[in-house]
Amino acid sequence: RDKGWMTEHLVLYQGFWLTPDSALKAVISIQNRFYPRPSDIFLASSPKTGTTWLKALIFATLNRTCYDFSTHPLLVHNPHDCVPLLDTFIHQNDLESWPSPRFLSTHMPYTLLPCSMTCASSGCKLVYVCRNPKDVLVSKWKFMNKLRPKHLPPLSLDEAFKLFCEGVSHYGPYWDHVLGYWKASLENPEKILFLKYEDLKREPLEGVKRLAEFLGKPFLVEEEKAGMVQGIVRLCSFENLRNLEVNKRDVIRFSKDIVVENRNFFRKGNVGDSENYLTAEMMQLLDEITKKKFFSSRLIFGA
Ligand code: A3P
């Protein structure tokens, strides 16, 4: 269906647009041969909503053994190396041999996850992060142009906008992806924590405390007094991560064809950057789609 974003067509599978050679195969593998453990933690997200940041924040929150941040693994490893994407690792690795607790990420829509991951009795926990659709679109447009093969002309904003509004984006329609996790989080708040990028940007300390509590690892009084929460927020801040050597130089191989330079995951990290690119008409149309899609859900985006 779609030659717009990349060279590979997207196919519509059970309401979502997926790359047939990677995402679709991953859905089938996850549904058929992934065995979640009650101690597993999953970060779920649509691409460009702050996945890299949340990987870092959750990884640092889970792995806080001392107050010394000068030797933290995130200083020398990219967040994507610390927290593998289940959707690709399911093919490349023997996840069964991994020690518990496993912390993995996924871009899969909620309805495509196996019941063994989503049913309340499975024990594992899911954190979902979403972001206002206008910033997601601009972030995605910029990112996809970095990945585009040299022989293709850059994707115009008009083309990207049209595809995104039609719902044709990786793991899209974006709104349906968000709604799936939103509804599930309302039904089962102990299992799914639903977060917004904008809230985390506004109140990162509160966000990290919430994450820690949800994951069953609340901060102890002495940890708070020692500045542990502030330390995690500082370590994982956009400015800090972006300026680390590891995030400036290395690449991540998501699949045979998709190799991404780490630095491409750190662009601006702002709320509302879409205003610098989208026309007033584009913003209005996206707002209208969002309003319509979320009408009966009580879900709103401030920005
Ligand atoms: P922008 O393109 O708007 O700058 P993902 O990790 O899901 O691919 O999302 C990438 C977006 O998150 C990019 O947004 C990127 O700059 C931003 N980002 C990456 N690390 C961040 C951090 N530590 N804090 C805030 N935003 C971050």
Automatic annotation (TrEMBL):
EC supergroup of this enzyme: transferase
| Keywords, sorted A to Z | Transferase
UniProt xrefs under InterPro entries:
P-loop_NTPase (IPR027417), Sulfotransferase_dom (IPR000863)
Task: Write out the similarity annotation.
Answer: Belongs to the sulfotransferase 1 family.
As recorded in UniProt, its EC number(s) are 2.8.2.-
Keyword Transferase recorded: yes
Q: Does the keyword Transcription apply?
A: no
This protein's source sits in the domain of life called Eukaryota
* One function term, GO molecular function aspect: sulfotransferase activity
Q: What protein is this chain from?
A: Sulfotransferase
Q: Sulfotransferase domain: which residues? A: 38-294
